[in-house]
Amino acid sequence: MLMASWSMATTTASDFTLDEQTFQSEMAALDQLEQELSAPTFTATSSNNTVLFAQHGLQQSAFGLGDMEWGPFAWGFCCWPVGFFVVAINSNKSKNEKLSFWIGAAVSVVFSAIGSSSAGS
Amino acid sequence: MMPLSLFISALRGRFFLLKMITACLVIYTFAATSSPILGQQAYRIKAECTVKSKTVGSHEAGLIMGTVYYDVRIGRLIFDVKFPEKETWVFVDSVQWTIRNDTLISIKPSSLKPKLSVLHLSLNQQLGGFGLEQSGYTMTSVKTEQGLVISNWSPPAAARKKMGTIALASQERQLKSVIFYHPNGKILRKQFFRKYQKISNVSLPTEVIDEIYNQDKKLFQSTEYKNTVINDQAPDFHYRRDPQYRNLPSGSASPKR
Q1: Which residues 16-45 of A have a C-beta within 8 angstroms of B?
Q2: Residue B177 domain flag
Q3: SS3 call for A106
Q4: What is the CATH number of the domain that holds B107?
Q5: 120-149 in chain B: CB under 8 A from chain A
Q6: B162 in a domain, yes or no?
Q7: Has residue B88 been placed in a domain?
Q8: Phi (first) and psi of residue B93, to 5 degrees
Q9: Is B116 part of a structural domain of the chain?
Q10: Residues B252 and B243: beta-carbon distance below 8 Å
C-alpha cells in the first residue's frame, strides 16, 4: 500500500539547471539593498526596515504563524491595556512582538464581540 | 683506563637514548597535529553571512545579514543577526533560541539541524555526500550525464510516507546540486552549491542558491558567505552562547547544555 503511493523520481542532468536569468533579475533589488546596508555609514533600525524595502520596490516577507511571539500575543489577548505599555510602545520590543500583541488584542475584541452578541440574543 | 669495547657500548647506549628521545618527539608531534585543537584539522568556522529570499513575480522579499559561527565539537549553529534586527539565533538540535541583549527571549522548533548544515558538512568533508548516509538514506542508482555524476537516494522505508527521494549531482568530487522530491515524485526544492573556496583545507561553497516550490509559487533564496575564518581562536563563548535565563517564557523547554 505504502509503496503504491511512493514514487521513485527519475532525475536527468537538465533537472539540475538553475534559471540564471530569472534568478539574477529577481535578486537585483535585494542585491542593491544589501550594498546600501553594507556601507559603513549605514545604521539600521527595525522601524525603518519597511521603508527601506519599499524604496527598492520590495515588501518584507509576510508575517506567518511561525513568527508569532506568544508572550506578547497573550498580553494583547488577556490584558491589552497593560500590554500596550509593556509591548506596543516599548522600544526594546521587536516588530514581530508588537505585531503579535496587536493580533492578540484583535482576537480578543472579536471573541468579546461574539460573546456579547450571543449573550444578547 | 676504560677498555675500548666498554667505551663503544657506552656510546651505543647514548645513541640508543638519543634515538628513543627523537622517536618520542616524532610521535608527540604526530599526535599533536592530529588533534583538532592543536593541529590543522578544521573544527571551527566563522563567516559573514547574507540570506536573501524573493518570491518570483511578487514584491515579497526577505534579507538577513550577520555573522555565523559553528564549532563541530559544540554542535550549535550561531547566527549573530545585524539586520533586520540585532539579535542572536542559536540553532541547537531541532530548536532555535532567540537571544536579545544577552537574554533568551524565545525557544521555537526549527527545521534547521546544525549537523546537516553546509558548515558542518564542509568542516567534516562530508558535503560531497550531503550527509545522506548518516541520515539513513540509501543510494539506489548512480549514472554520469553531461559531466555530472547523478545519484539517487531513497529514505528509510519507515519514513517514505513523509519523505521522498533526493538526487545529488557532483562534478570533480564537488557537490553541485541537490533535488528534494515529494513522496509523490514532484520536485519540492533544488539547491545549488557554487563559488567553492578552499580555505585552510576546507572546501566551502560560498554561495548556496535554493529554488523552492510552494504550491503554485516559486521562491529563490541565496545564502552567501564572506570573510570566512577557519579555526578562529576566539573564546568558546562565541560558539556556545549559553543565554541568561531572565524572561524565559513560561512553559518553554530548558535549553540543552
Answers
A1: 16, 18-19, 22-23, 26-27, 29-31, 33-34, 37-38, 44
A2: no
A3: helix
A4: 2.50.20
A5: 140, 145-146, 148
A6: no
A7: yes
A8: 50, -110
A9: yes
A10: no
